Amino acid sequence: MGKVLKKHAQVVVIGGGVIGCSILYHLTKLGWSDVILLERDELTSGSTWHAAAGIHGLHDSTNISRIQHYTMKLYKELEAETGQGCGIFQPGSLYLAQTENRSHQLHLQAAKAKLYGMNFYEISRSEAEKLHPLVNFDGIQTIMWEPDGGNVDPSGVTAAYAAGARKKGANIYRFTPVTATIQQKDGSWVVETPNGEIHTQWIVNAAGLWGREVAKLAGFELPLMPTEHQYFVTETIPEIKKMDRRLPSIADRDAEYYLRQEGKGLLVGAYERDVRFWAEKKTPLGFGHELLDDDLERIEANITRAIERVPVLNEAGIKRVINGPMIWSPDSNVLFGPVPELKNYFCCNGIIPGFSQSGGMGLLAAEWIIEGETKYDMFAWDIARFDTWADKEFTKSRVADQYTKRYSIHFPNEERNAGRPVRTRPVYEMQNKLGAVMGLSFGWEHPLWFANEPGVKDSIGFTRQNWWLPVGKECKMLRNNAGIIDISNFAKYVVRGKKAHEWLDKVFANKIPTEVGRSTLTPLISSRGGLAGDFTINLIAENEYWIFGSGMAERYHKRFFFSVPFPEGVIFESMTDNICGFSVSGPKSRKILQHLTNTSLNTKDFPFMRSKRIELAGIQVHALRISFTGDLGWEIYCNTFDQKKLYSALLDAGKEFGAGPVGSRALMSMRIEKGYGSWSREYSPEYWPHEQGMARFCNMDKNFLNKAALEDVLRKAPREKMYLLHLDESSVKKSNADATGGEPIFKDGIGIGRVTSGTYGYTVGMSLALAMIKNVRPGDDVYVMVLGKPHKATILHEPPFDPKGEKLRA
Length: 810
Ligand SMILES: Cc1cc2nc3c(=O)[nH]c(=O)nc-3n(C[C@H](O)[C@H](O)[C@H](O)COP(=O)(O)OP(=O)(O)OC[C@H]3O[C@@H](n4cnc5c(N)ncnc54)[C@H](O)[C@@H]3O)c2cc1C
Fold this sequence. Notes:
Structural class: alpha+beta
Radius of gyration: 27 Å
Helix content: 25-40%
Number of helices: 20
Strand content: 25-35%
Bound molecules: flavin-adenine dinucleotide
């Protein structure tokens, strides 16, 4: 019989691995002490106990780097606070580049480190040889040094979080498996265990290897799949035994292994190409402190490469092999945040570098639960980036791809093919025949660009790739004549009913149209007053509104929409599956469309931002005069079953006018030429509306979701602002690369901002970047770190394409 459980709590955390314990600790750190952790066995009984527990600070994603740095710093503080040892070794990490692309990646990371004040910089071979005399640096092009890299003791860290949490009032019940989680009418939960039940406001699923099973208790599925993972530890190595210091760890990612000192020997692990899944259907309930059968043959190729780099390994005997399971999401990032369809159910599952990230994950989880939102934009980690389309088959294929390419560079614009297609629309085959190179957006296949023939694939790299010229052709075709862009990916919702206006007015910041055919652009405000989204709302018929937003944020936005109760009689539906759309845009778009309809499309009959239900090519469509290209154009929406017919009609009619299909990469280029921001790039909850030029779309004379938070931020001066930059052509030509997003920006050697989106502006002949920058003015010169190297750039006074919006309104 276990300890008698408390009956009530603010939060019940399920799972006593490193993540669950960190979340518990941070909940108490942020002031909630009435919190409980339930662990079915001993603490650390999942992946945690057998981890290699290496810690790194740097990552391609800036926010992940921030989280990892916080975590690395926290371990020492945790030791001091709790008296519990965390087994911290920080002898540093050496990052090696064997290829030009890896060098670009490391230089970019070093530039980011400088911007964010993180400790990561390039060193020479002779400096590296002093730091790690056992490494053969032949063939290495670039070496970076992270002085704080190292490893920790997994059990020590978990125990320290637990001790810290207990000190601040948390209760931990071991040997208490959760057997049921039952949502109550008021949104609270009852958690059942063999030792009794607990009534709680919030549940946190931190059940690691059992995340899927615990989710099922609440009636939902998590896209997770476990794999085996192996590392081994050598016997004592005489050269290491002689040393009076610990050696740095080695990140030789081109060779696909990791290596660090363990005791007086070495620890080597690998994400091998021959991946093995484990417990595909269900993680066994009784599994705990067992290991899986080792099979070093599978990682032999990786070990051989490790031996070439660190020759003393060849002579070393193997002391122990660890083969343990770890559980992955389809993109290997954590599934994080409240489940949008449930009240007060938080997930933190599928975390791979648990020891690099535990502190940051715990802090952000506690912030989200207690303060309603994290201070960093977590969209790339949000559980809402997947939905039911990420089924078992998709998850398994993506996990295999992620595991085997764990150390491959994730290039800008790279699309991975594993598990696809999962969601297609009727025109998919037609687009393939037209040469479409497809991308994946919230599960949907959509054309990125059109090659001359079917079957062409994207090449990948940091520099300009095989799509660079064809995308330019598409842009020029559209700007000279017209183009037809599949925009079915946009999220589309309908709100119907007499009180539809009332609900919309309460949710969105701008004035909601009251005249049929009128539209408005409006931000959605986040809990901290930032930008949770940007939408077009159109009154299509009496008491019937259509809302258009970012497709990839469809599940994310549910949290906001469903937080405002629907008045009686109001119906809200997503139409993303049932309705498809094409943007027909460019100076000849009116002529093309006029060919297909009797409705007059002249400006006086069909002005900018207005909409009509019309018949086009014999199909009933909803036409909205708006275009994200910044050019004259219409968005045409039809029922999904009419999509093929409409596409054929548009393409046929377009031919006569020199128009053809255009992909989303061209659209992205053209919207930047016009200076338009885009969700998850320029618009994110981290940014305030007046930093993004969006404050004018907030009507402060009415009440709306999170208005008080917005009032708060509007009282403050913008911390930075969005600007459009023109990169110096000669330096861009030399590196054969444009900015892509994330590149730091410096002025007089001081970090002042970062690129949010970059492109070549083909129709204005300029390499462009949208960026968030502080302390600058239009006309100023700055340096953008494309490929991690300074590229001169000028801040533009206005967008180079149609700054007065004359073409848009023509
Ligand atoms: C071989 C190997 C090497 C690794 N090396 C590293 C490394 O070098 N660096 C790094 O950062 N990461 C590494 N990892 C990954 C790291 O181990 C994980 O990221 C981390 O342990 C995940 O912790 P967790 O708390 O999410 O899950 P887990 O450790 O799986 O913990 C989940 C806990 O939930 C409990 N639980 C499950 N169901 C219930 C229930 N119904 N009721 C109550 N409790 C329940 C389980 O008993 C378990 O204790 C490695 C992993 C492996 C397998």
